[in-house]
Specification:
The protein has 202 residues and is of the alpha+beta class. It is built from 5 helices and 6 strands, in the order αββββααβααβ.
Length: 202
């Protein structure tokens, strides 16, 4: 086996491994960020609300269709007299928690890192193809074929959740009488029968 093939195969394998390391690091950083922002809060999936350390509930307040986010908010009158308010939030409208609806990579940063990972795998496949054209020894061909299959599987896995605009996701419904304000692509919310939600329409 020629040194060129060995070096090329090693570099291609390193690129593919680097793509997965980058993917893991970016997803891990995102998960840590979410845990930090919701530390002390408990999410109850069966009823779709968050519970704060003071046992107060944060219900869905707004659905952002463009960013695929749900914003949960506690009642302002309860938060403003809470003894932990200064350490929890500086807002006078109640503590807010934002939850993404889609799996990783759902954010622009996540998709950016996923594209970088795909580029690394693509470069790895390009190196393997070039070496396969230049070298036809059976042992070398078998090694390059194995790396090509690994690269194709890696690219397929990385492409699985890469979606610029999620489609087919069911629209959220109101929870416990709280109207969910749907934000359109123009950033404008439709008028609601609740006066408190229409303050921004002036």
């Amino acid at each position: 086996m020629s040194p060129e093939v060995v070096l090329a195969a090693g570099y291609a394998a390193l690129l593919t491994a680097g793509a997965f390391v980058l993917e893991w690091l970016s997803a891990h950083t995102h998960r840590r960020s979410l845990r930090y922002r919701t530390a002390g809060f408990t999410y109850h999936q069966e009823h779709d609300y968050w519970e704060c350390p003071e046992a107060q509930q944060l219900w869905p307040h707004e659905f952002d269709d463009e960013r695929r986010l749900v914003r949960y908010r506690a009642k302002a009158r309860i938060c403003n007299r809470c003894p932990r308010k200064e350490a929890c939030t500086d807002s006078d409208e109640g503590r807010e928690i934002v939850r993404p609806l889609d799996p990783w990579p759902h954010s622009e940063a996540g998709r950016f890192h996923r594209v970088i990972s795909l580029m690394l795998v693509g470069l790895s496949l390009l190196i393997v193809v070039v070496e396969a054209v230049r070298h036809h020894d059976p042992v070398e061909a078998a090694l390059l074929f194995a790396l090509a299959v690994t690269g194709v599987l890696a690219a397929r896995w990385l492409l699985r959740d890469l979606r610029a605009h999620p489609a087919g996701f069911p629209a959220p419904s109101a929870a416990h009488g709280l109207g969910l304000a749907v934000t359109g692509a123009d950033g404008v919310r439709p008028r609601s029968r609740w006066a408190s939600q229409n303050r921004g329409h002036r």
